[in-house]
Amino acid sequence: MTKLLNRESLALVAPKLAELTQNVLFNDIWQRDALSPRERSLITLAALTALGRVQQLPWHVQFAQQNGLTREEMVEAFTHLAFYTGWPAAVSALECLEEEQR
């Protein structure tokens, strides 16, 4: 798997994208009251799984844990997603979850 860009390395590669990510996504969208950070994390994990964006999943798995999702809840979500996004997408997501446990 390729090395993930974190906030600092993203800022070096694409400063404007890093700025927009911080200001619009994390300081605005993630702060809105209609959904909790926990709910937003669950939605994000589902979207990344459905789209096959496994490179982004490890960071979001950690973030989901910070937002209150348990490992068991994420396993259950990925299992549920197997029937809606396909087996390969769900298994790839579970593999990312296992990488975070090592």
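Second entry:
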Amino acid sequence: MVHRLFKSGLATVIYDDELVDANCGKLFQLEWLHANSGGQKLERGTAVMFQYGGLELVFKQYHRGGLIGRWIAKTYRYCRLKNTRVWREFHMLDATHKLGLPVPRPVAACCTGITPIAYRGAVITERVPGSKNLTEILCEQPLSNELWGKLGTLIARFHTLNVFHADLNTSNILLADKEKFYLVDFDKGEVRTPLSRKDAESNVARLHRSLNKLQGRHPAFCFSEDNWQALTSAYQRAINSD
């Protein structure tokens, strides 16, 4: 993999030249995306799926959350290119992919200057085929404790490699072909050497809160404390065997 960089007007694009070429700049144009994704809308928290050059891809535009997001939803303060959220996530995905971890491969990222001190960003990754996120799955059916154990082992694998996921919730966990888990959305994620026990435990606790919240919101949500015990037991075994 070789990362190429080019500028087009106010936009700076980085891309993996094993997957796309410099023409990938058009993939970040909203008109092109709308026309080539079946008319999907760019909304906060919604990824846009499309095909390009024989690849199944996912486009994500950065949106602010919380109260401030009501006023400046897509704009961030610019300092240096390497410090932008989009640049950091692209390289974070690249680093974790090179570690052999199950994450989407980064394809391209774009940072567009709005003013000298503000930017907007977007990232494109390969789509994980045959996958659904954990929120969708658990609203439809339960998972076996064996699968919960596999998820716990996988989270431990990320942690033993010092990978910190800043927002480990059910929407950021994919299950592909009903047997393999992937983690997605590494915005604000980091490789922390070493990853502290406190930070690792905060990841696990964040996931537990996410599951409990959804269980309270959806009466048919398929999650139990027995499932959670299967996950944490497998997690601890994997951590202790490292």
